[in-house]
Structures are given as C-alpha cells and as structure tokens.
Please model this.
Amino acid sequence: MSQLGERLRAARETQGIPISQAAADTRILPRYIHALEGGDFAQLPGDVYARGFIRNYANYLNVHAEELIELYRVERGITDPITISRTTSAPQIRGLFVPSFFGVFFVVIVLMGLSYLALSMTNNLGDPQLASAPVPTSAPTPQPLPTWPASPTAAPELVAAPTAASAAPVTTPEVAGGAAPTAAPTVQPATPGGAISAAIRIAPGDHRGSWIKITADRAVIFEGILEANSVYPFAANTNVKIRAGNAGVVYVSINGLEQGPLGSEGRVFDFSWPPQ
Model:
C-alpha cells in the first residue's frame, strides 16, 4: 500500500471532504485524485504533472507538501545522483614586492634596448665620415589610376509581392437581456497543425446544454451555448482554457484522452491545459 496515498486519504477523510468537492476546489480531475490516494502513479499524465498535483493537493489539505513529494520520489524509485566535488587548496597570495617573471623579462628587454641605442650613438660619433654621409633618396614612382567601365549597369526592378486576402471574421451571437439563445452556435473550424487536438462533448439527456467559452493560445475562439448531444472540435498550439456554465454535462477530450465530466451540474468550472 502506498504511504503517500494513505496520508492523503487520511487527511481528506479527517476533514470530511468528498472527492468531488476536492476535485472542484483544486481543479484536479477525480480520477487523478483516486490515483494519488491509491498510489497508482501510472494513471497520472507525467512526473511533472504528478508533482504539481501532489503539491496542490497537499496545500489544499494543509499537509507538508515537500515531505509528500519526497515520499512520491521514493515510491516511484526516483533518486538524485550523488555528486562528489573535489576540494581545492586556497590560492597563494603573491607578495607586493616580489617581482614576477614577466616584470623581470620586460626590464631586461628595456635595458638591452637602451644598451644597443647607446652603442649605436657611440659608433656614429666616432666615425665622422659615416655620420656626415648624405643618404640618397629616390622619389616614389606614381601608380596608374584604376579605370572604370563607362556604361553603367541598370538597377534591377523591384516587384511587389502579392498580399493574401484577409480571412472573414467569425461573429458570435449576442445575448440580449441575459436570455440564452436557442439556435445552435456557429462552429469555428479548428486550427490545422495545432499541437493540442481538443473537442468538447455535451452529454445527451433532457437538459438545455451548457454555456461554453473557449480560449486557445490566449485568443477567444468560441463563446455561446452548446446544446445536448453536440460536439465542438478545435485545436491549439500551446494552451487551452475552457469555462463551462453547466460543468456536469461537459466532457473535454485532449489529444484523444477524455477529461470529465468537469464538475457537478449547475456549477461553473474552469478547465485549462496544460494543468496550472
């Protein structure tokens, strides 16, 4: 039996919180809560999401989150590699008045240069004929100037690229006086090539459906009423946010994995993917 799951279930039952209320308050799907309390980590979407679920659920139940995450690592068999670092000796501080090798080398070079200059001047002064001999100079030969072609080259013509026609905007029906429209909403086609393939399905039955607001990649792509037994497919590149007015009849499918129902009937529920 999972010690992590036992501690989570005991904390929840001690506070008298049902799983449905915990799922609605923490925005964690009920099946993920069952998986955490049962120690069935294979049902969780991934290690990063599992740690986020444990942290949010532990904070909700007022349980030490870091201790539970460590239990999860032990039960999952994840250990951090042990790194051994070599100790380094303290750097030796060189004295202010101890000359370095480069300093001595530079002084020697300067002294040699001064000695050579002094010897050269002494030899020139000792031989007056060499010192007074004129040095012949020759005028430099001028180089011919470069020539350029007389006929200029024509500049290439610039052709403006054609612009693509803008897509017609999609309008959503307005709600007058707070009354919900009875006509079926206009379905906007899904964005092709999106990394997230999603769909909203309204359960069949004797109900009026649910008000839905869909935000894909931080842009609202749909807001209106989806009737019973209807499906709305769409796609996104990075993230999806859904607000449902009647969460008990709303089912969300993300990349073929169905999430739902999102909550209880008559309640407003916010769903986001990836989970926050």
